[in-house]
């Protein structure tokens, strides 16, 4: 184990927690941690190797406890490529989760829709992704393990479990393709039109690096986007991070209900 894993493991042993599932919360989804019972909190600043998150709406803490009665680790906030210029910024975090025995990773994000029928406030299950940025967190990895297969990056069983959890919560959960732009500037109207032509349903600035790293580490993955806005040029309005923060809690409440059901079944 690395130093961060040792610190977390010591506290987990005290609480008799042995989580197998971890959840990464995107913008506006932080309130989910308020549902964690018997919570044990760790600031990223106190965990060696954990990158600080400099984005408003990301708390920058790891919370261990129980969700729907099941042990879970929740990461409130993530590091983004556009903050550090490092696509592998989350590698130490995911390696720590792997060391702690996590085998299933649930990723969430805030995203922009490129579909007229996927409105702000809705939730989309990520079926696949397009790495439009061209960046890869495994560049420089010396072993042959860097050649990670991505045909089934998003676990089919977990996607089915997500859909069952949404049905139980009475929430719609359409599937879609997520396209990763590096950010931090928003996309142009031309880029949104291109994304639609290439087969994307939503666009965002995160998640894909973590998916690649998690597959490298052998974790099962599922991911969801909370839709916070229509893409540039679709409404004529300018985009802003404030809009993301304002809209994310609306879809976030829907996703929280789904996640509670999901963890109750898979953890």
Automatic annotation (TrEMBL):
Residues 20-263 form the Nucleoside phosphorylase domain. The keyword Transmembrane helix does not apply. Keywords: Glycosyltransferase, Transferase. InterPro entries: Nucleoside_phosphorylase_d (IPR000845), Nucleoside_phosphorylase_sf (IPR035994), PUNP (IPR011269), Purine_phosphorylase (IPR011268). GO terms for molecular function: purine-nucleoside phosphorylase activity. Pathway: Purine metabolism; purine nucleoside salvage. Homotrimer. This is Purine nucleoside phosphorylase.
């Amino acid at each position: 184990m690395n130093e961060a894993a040792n610190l977390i493991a010591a506290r987990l042993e005290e609480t008799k927690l042995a989580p197998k599932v971890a959840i990464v919360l995107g913008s506006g989804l932080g309130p989910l941690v308020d549902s964690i019972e018997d919570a044990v909190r760790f600031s990223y600043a106190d965990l060696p190797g954990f990158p600080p998150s400099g984005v408003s709406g990301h708390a920058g803490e790891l919370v261990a406890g129980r969700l729907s009665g099941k042990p879970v680790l929740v990461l409130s906030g993530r590091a983004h490529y556009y903050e550090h210029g490092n696509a592998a910024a989350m590698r130490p975090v995911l390696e720590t989760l792997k060391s702690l025995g996590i085998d299933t990773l649930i990723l969430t994000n805030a995203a922009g829709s490129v579909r007229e029928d996927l409105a702000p406030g809705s939730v989309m299950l990520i079926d696949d992704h397009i790495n439009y940025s061209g960046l890869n967190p495994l560049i420089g990895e010396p072993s042959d393990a860097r050649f990670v297969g991505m045909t089934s990056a998003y676990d089919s069983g977990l996607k089915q479990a997500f859909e069952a959890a949404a049905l139980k919560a009475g929430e719609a959960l359409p599937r879609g393709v997520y396209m990763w732009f590096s950010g931090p500037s928003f996309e142009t109207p031309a880029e949104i039109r291109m994304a639609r032509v290439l087969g994307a349903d939503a666009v965002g600035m995160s998640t894909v690096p973590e998916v690649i790293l998690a597959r490298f580490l052998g974790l099962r993955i599922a991911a969801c986007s909370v839709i916070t806005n229509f893409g540039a040029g679709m409404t004529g309005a300018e985009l802003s991070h404030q809009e993301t923060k304002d809209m994310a809690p609306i879809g976030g409440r829907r996703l929280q209900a789904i996640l509670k059901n999901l963890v109750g079944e898979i953890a």
